[in-house]
């Protein structure tokens, strides 16, 4: 999953709360067609959720908060996201996105987790 997330990450953009996926460039770069197809479906579903929320006059996020990534805690980790990032994650989850698409859209979380794992291994 990590390799797939890293493969699609350069082609996912967040443009004012709307996710875009440059599938043509992903295919040209050698990303597997199945992964491109699943990512496209996940992004389209997440944007459909966002569109529904916009038409429902739901309060627009103000992007308050911070994007601190993973922070260690006594019983695991916390992920801090501002309201805009949290809304994108919510839309992806509500739209049924796969773990790879979510990881590709939020690589700051995945990459920081890998860094923590590597640092912990280096200390042993």
Sequence stretches where pLDDT stays below 50 over 5 or more residues: none
- The total tally of domains equals 1
Chain-averaged pLDDT: 78
> What series of H and E elements makes up the topology?
HEEHHEEHHH
The helix tally amounts to 6
The biggest sheet, with number of strands, parallel, antiparallel or mixed sense and barrel status, is: 2 strands, antiparallel
Q: Strands across the major sheet, in which order?
A: 1-2
Rg calc: 16 Å
Shape type: flat
Helix percentage range: 55-70%
Work out the number of β strands.
4
Straight-line distance between termini: 26 Å
Structural class by sheet pairing and helices: alpha+beta
Query: Roughly what fraction of the amino acids lie in strands?
Result: 5-15%
Task: Describe the model.
By secondary structure, the chain is an alpha+beta fold. It has one domain (2-65, 83-106). Helix content is 58%, strand content 15%. It is built from 6 helices and 4 strands; from the N terminus they run αββααββααα. The strands form 2 sheets. Strands 1-2 form a two-stranded antiparallel ribbon. Helix 1 packs across helix 5 (99-105) and helix 3 (33-55) crosses helix 4. The two termini are 26 Å apart.
Short description, anyone?
58% of the residues lie in helices and 15% in strands. By secondary structure, it is an alpha+beta fold. The strands form two sheets. It has a two-stranded antiparallel sheet.
């Amino acid at each position: 999953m990590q390799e797939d997330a890293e493969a699609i990450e350069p082609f996912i953009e967040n443009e004012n709360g709307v996710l875009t996926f440059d599938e043509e460039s992903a295919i040209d770069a050698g990303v597997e067609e199945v992964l491109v197809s699943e990512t496209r479906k996940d992004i389209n579903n997440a944007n459909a959720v966002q569109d529904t929320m916009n038409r429902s006059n739901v309060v627009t996020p103000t992007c308050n908060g911070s994007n601190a990534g993973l922070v260690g805690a006594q019983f695991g980790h916390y992920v801090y996201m501002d309201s805009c990032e949290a809304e994108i994650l919510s839309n992806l989850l509500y739209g049924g996105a796969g773990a790879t698409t979510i990881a590709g859209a939020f690589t700051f979380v995945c990459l920081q987790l890998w860094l923590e794992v590597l640092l912990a291994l280096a200390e042993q």
